[in-house]
Give the backbone structure.
Amino acid sequence: SRWVGFDWGFFGRAGINPWCFNGFSNYYAKKTILKARIIDSTNVVSDLLGSYDYPTFLGYDKPLTSLDGSDKMLAYIKGGLVSFLLATEIYTRTNGQLNFDDFNRELFEKYWFRGVVIGTEEVKSELEEFTETDFTEFFNHYVYGTTPLPQTWASQDLDGDGLLNAGEILWDTNPENPDTDNDGLSDNEEALGRTDPIDKDSDDDGLPDGDEDNNHNGTVDSGETDPLNADTDGDQMPDGWEKLHGLNPLANDASEDADLDGYSNLEEYQRGTDPRNPESHPIESMPWIPLLLLDK
């Protein structure tokens, strides 16, 4: 269906219902500022849920597909809320196996990248194929109809980690698992802190985030390595490698020789040998090998 009453530029001229784009964009805008930690989960969730209380001129009493010319915010605000609701529907209908990102990837590959217009019916059709469920009732209520958007599930905290289900959807975490990435820090602790709640080892140094932030307070305290810095002490050896080999990840011990084999700790790291075992040390190259190569 086409929008009336506004000049939507390319979208309007092409007959595209722009809630599919502006609504999705509004959803991803909230998600982006959340993950950039410009605003925390609580505020984003409050913004999402609080949007239901906006005056009716914003369009919550109007269907998405029959704009009458009086509501310029319908495509963005209500469209964003419907997009968020779709994200929760995808998660719950697929038992957490698929998410809104997966859906959009398939939607654009199937339609947009092939030059096919994407409208409400295309979105509905792809949702049904993607989730193998029927979205007729959903669209009749929330897209074509004027049924108030539900918020009960979004405002719950199924796993008791302190992060509402709405926040879990935006973070791509599992609302039924308090520690989605199994790193020892709860999803909410990571959302409020600095680490990534869907990456067990945010700095890829070989140590789970929970092992680095021992007291789970989101800051680097005395005696802790930095979960966002693979080399906390700056000695060119990763924190995880140092801990694994009994070195100190909080002190620059690169030039030391822990096993007294004549090779520094850093040399052993660079050559892949054990700095605590004198029998494990870098192999010296044979002086005659270059001559053999030249002889060829």
Remarks:
- The CA atoms of residues 55 and 61 lie 9 Å apart.
- Residues 1-15, 54-58 have pLDDT under 50 and may be disordered.
- The chain has 13 helices and no strands.
